[in-house]
Amino acid sequence: MISKLENDKILIKADSLGAELKKLVLKKNNKDYLWHGDSKYWGRSAPVLFPFVGRLKADKYVYNNQEYKMTQHGFARDKEFELIDQGENHLTFSLTEDKASLKKYPFKFRLEIKYKIKGNSLAVSYKVRNCDQKKMFFSIGAHPAFYWPLNKNENKEDYYLEFNKTETASRYLLESGLLNNQKEKLIEKSKKLELKADTFKDDALVFKDIKSEKIILKSRKSEAKVEMEFEGFPYLGIWSQSAAAPFICIEPWHGIADSVDSSGKLEEKEGIMSLEAGNNFESTYVIKID
């Protein structure tokens, strides 16, 4: 089921399947900034990554001496959520465990995804509640894809990413979706990360040490831009499927893929978070389009 929110500046649509954002339209130019999803390149638009971010080593993990299988980025993106609240400027979707999820992830939980619009901004909020009687381990992250370039008369090379703080940062390299314990210096005392069509030829750019809380996708040829604020998120991924794919994903994460030498034990997983029984975790990122 598709639900809609709009004000005088923007319009959004979200699908109850995966609680996934499907449209983000700036009304003044009637432009959709969100990638529409095309299986030729990548069939999703903005999936929610839960209860894991990235790939697990051998697509499995061990908890309480039992082995569980889990596909990349978890199962929430393929689950039907319930729309539990809708107001003039907000939508809230909810997901809880079921028999199928408990076979993959042995925790009772409640996950809420809230979309709230204000002016030309969209706030996306996560709320995770541990509904179990034991400590719960999880990760959660965002994966929104934006058109790149944003205008038909522009090229990918006309764009760059601008951080709100001067950065010296390395990308952590991936091998078949797993961190391979190598890194490559990518930014040296700069606020800019230049973009090229082949920037992602070796998979996503994965950052662990970004100081900034804001990143902007900017064009040198137009005023079009996408700004994302992600305060409190310890990891950041930037990705596109191929040199020909007309989108770029900007992905703030609470969690990260396994490394090639991960133990497989859930409690030892890098970036994994824990919640005591009955406790909540909350986090928000904000997208602003212009």
Automatic annotation (TrEMBL):
<dbReference type="InterPro" id="IPR037481">
    <property type="entry name" value="LacX"/>
</dbReference>
<dbReference type="GO" id="GO:0030246">
    <property type="term" value="F:carbohydrate binding"/>
</dbReference>
<dbReference type="GO" id="GO:0016853">
    <property type="term" value="F:isomerase activity"/>
</dbReference>
<dbReference type="InterPro" id="IPR008183">
    <property type="entry name" value="Aldose_1/G6P_1-epimerase"/>
</dbReference>
<dbReference type="InterPro" id="IPR011013">
    <property type="entry name" value="Gal_mutarotase_sf_dom"/>
</dbReference>
<dbReference type="InterPro" id="IPR014718">
    <property type="entry name" value="GH-type_carb-bd"/>
</dbReference>
<protein>
    <submittedName>
        <fullName>Galactose mutarotase</fullName>
    </submittedName>
</protein>
<dbReference type="GO" id="GO:0005975">
    <property type="term" value="P:carbohydrate metabolic process"/>
</dbReference>
<dbReference type="Pfam" id="PF01263">
    <property type="entry name" value="Aldose_epim"/>
</dbReference>
